[in-house]
Design goal:
This protein is mainly beta and 180 residues long. 8% of the residues lie in helices and 39% in strands. Bound molecules: flavin mononucleotide.
Length: 180
């Protein structure tokens, strides 16, 4: 069947939404991000518009946290995507704890990943931070008996650009490598 070419457009959705945390002037700040991804098996990439407030702290400390959003705190996370630290102090938006490596992490996030910035692939108006994963902190309630995150229990929120909506992961539709 012929497909219609709709142009050079972002079509890799839905994707998980995260709240990135970093220290700026000794206080935490938080920014909602959808454009993030996995690199190799050891790194994440976080794509942040250069003028965002949080970038200053990331340049300075080279530490950030990736807090995976679920429905229980989606409304608060959403606010971190509409208010900029350039205009309003967001340091008190969440109860937080300092990670073992110096990145602030949101207490109510069931999964938080602490990262060190290894590089920055600057492209157009974006800093694309290449982040080495240093530690992953998970609420016991989302772990299985092997201490792996159970995505039947933990349901990250997904986002898509065309309609600017949030989704939630659904049912399992197959076992990887065992579909034939
Ligand atoms: C659903 C959603 C996803 C977003 N994803 C990104 C993103 O991937 N990269 C980015 O730079 N900004 C993204 N933003 C915009 C920032 O979160 C927003 O401009 C924020 O206020 C910047 O905060 P800061 O200036 O305090 O860092 C997103 C906003 C929303 C609502």
């Amino acid at each position: 069947m012929a497909k219609k070419n709709i142009g050079a457009t972002l079509a890799l959705y839905p994707c998980p939404v995260i709240v990135v945390g970093a220290m700026v002037n000794n206080k935490p700040t938080w920014t909602l991000v959808a454009h993030a991804g996995i690199m190799a098996h050891s790194h994440l990439m976080v794509s942040l518009v250069k003028v965002h407030y949080i970038n200053k702290g990331i340049y300075e400390n080279k530490k950030l946290s990736v807090n995976v959003v679920d429905e229980s705190w989606l409304a608060k996370a959403d606010k971190m995507g509409t208010v900029s630290g350039n205009k309003e102090d967001k340091s008190e938006a969440f109860a937080w704890s300092m990670g073992e490596n110096g990145a602030p992490m949101i207490d109510e996030a069931k999964v938080s990943i602490e990262c060190e910035v290894d590089g920055n692939y600057e492209l157009e108006q974006f800093d694309n931070f290449i982040c080495k994963i240093l530690a992953t902190y998970a609420d016991e309630g989302v772990l299985n008996e092997q201490d792996k995150i159970d995505y039947h229990t933990f349901k990250p929120i997904l986002f898509e650009f065309p309609t600017y909506e949030y989704f939630i992961t659904g049912k399992s539709v197959g076992k990887c490598g065992k579909m034939n």
